[in-house]
Amino acid sequence: MEHQALYRRFRPKTFDEVIGQDHIVTTLKNQIVSNQISHAYLFSGTRGTGKTSIAKIFAKAINCTEPQNGIACGKCPACIALNNPDNLDIIEIDAASNNGVDNIRDIKESVIYPPTISKYKVYIIDEVHMLSESAFNALLKTLEEPPTYVVFILATTEVHKLPQTILSRCIRFDFKLVSIETLVGQLQKIFDQVGVKYEEEALKLIASLGEGSVRDTLSIAESCITFSNNNITYDSVTEITGITSKDALATICEYIITRDCTNLLSYLKALADKGKNFGQLNRDLVNFVRDISIIKNCNNAQSLLSMPDDIYSRCQAIAQSCDNAILIKIMSRLSSLEQEFRYTTDSRALFEINVLGLLNDEDRIEKLEQRIKALESKIISGDCP
Ligand SMILES: Nc1ncnc2c1ncn2[C@@H]1O[C@H](COP(=O)(O)OP(=O)(O)O)[C@@H](O)[C@H]1O
Ligand SMILES: [Mg+2]
Ligand SMILES: [Zn+2]
Predict the structure, then answer these.
(1) Whose alpha carbon is nearest atom 24 of ligand 1?
(2) What are the tens digits of pLDDT across the range 110-165?
(3) Residue 244: DSSP 8-state
């Protein structure tokens, strides 16, 4: 069988298969039930959250002659005809590659022909923010007075690039980033279906790396399947994705907090020898220290963070061993480096200098504190000259 990417193979075909966008799915189904279809929809949101998938599902559902609670029946002549990708009534246009005024003129000309087999002729214009200014103007005219049988669904990841005139003519739906919990559920379902074994914690890690995009999550999952011999462990995910393991981050963090310069430097050398990318390490460390501060300051930290139990207890110990000031200092100093990593030719040196800077800063403050304490006790004991 031809190999098909996971995210293509698992493109939702019905509203029931869509995850994490309940607010949108419910509204769209209600519009179908009450027969209140608008003429222009705008789907905005991060890539891989379901805009194109839902546009296609909706385009079919509004044409179904026997919809059940807003869901296409799949059996009526309209459903059968529209399931054929060559049908003439659902027209998908990728504005990234068709962004000129001529492309929109083509649409304007075809809009005058009624649908061939169904009730509505649906134009799905993906990446609509890519249209040129004159193309937007041409589109606007069509959006202003479309024939009754025409429905436009515009989709974009960058809604701020759309002119107000377009925005004001559409019903807008903002797609949400999908929660880790929901993504884990989806991964579980898919892994079970394709017959892959996995550790629970590996699922959470993959889901958190996907950062709310289902598509990105599935792409990461796919490389994990390919490279981990059908048994996806937490460690294999850290290795495949190149993120620094929590174990290594905890070690570095402990050395910084205890100001153990010698061990810190030799540990970093060992990582460098393994080919570690220090820009990535820097980013991972900032996130890790943020996790530590969440553990230090939130009661429900364990449910907020996806960490294996053993690492979680180690992080808890780190959180207890230091105060908020040092955590804030690490985060602010290292996160401000983000830009510099782009331009430096020696990212290891950049990282080391700044980490050592953190240790020294602390030293100075501690020495100052000691001097203040000494002065205070002298004042109290009346020993002051
Ligand atoms: N809400 C979702 N529910 C289920 N799968 C999704 C969802 N969003 C994205 N996907 C997965 O990602 C792939 C790409 O989704 P797509 O609808 O093209 O996203 P977008 O248009 O927002 O970039 C789909 O084929 C599917 O595998
Ligand atoms: Mg899309
Ligand atoms: Zn039908």
Answers:
(1) 11
(2) 999 999 989 999 999 999 999 999 999 999 989 998 999 999 999 999 999 999 99
(3) P
Instruction: Verify whether ligand 1 is closer than 6 Å to residue 20 (CB atom).
Output: yes
51 lines ligand 1 (CB under 6 A): yes
- pLDDT band at 381; cut points 50, 70, 90: confident
Q: Nearest 10 degrees: CA dihedral of 123, 58, 216, 337?
A: 70
pTM > 0.90: yes or no: no
CB-based contact 162:128 (threshold 8 Å): yes
* Cα 151 to ligand 1 centroid, rounded to whole Å: 21
Distance separating alpha carbons of residues 252 and 89, to the nearest angstrom: 59
Residue 283: CATH number of its domain: 1.20.272.10
Classify residue 135: in a domain, yes or no. Answer: yes
Residues 204 and 318 in one domain: no
Q: State if residue 182 touches ligand 1 by the CB under 6 angstroms criterion.
A: no
Percent with pLDDT over 70 in the chain:
97
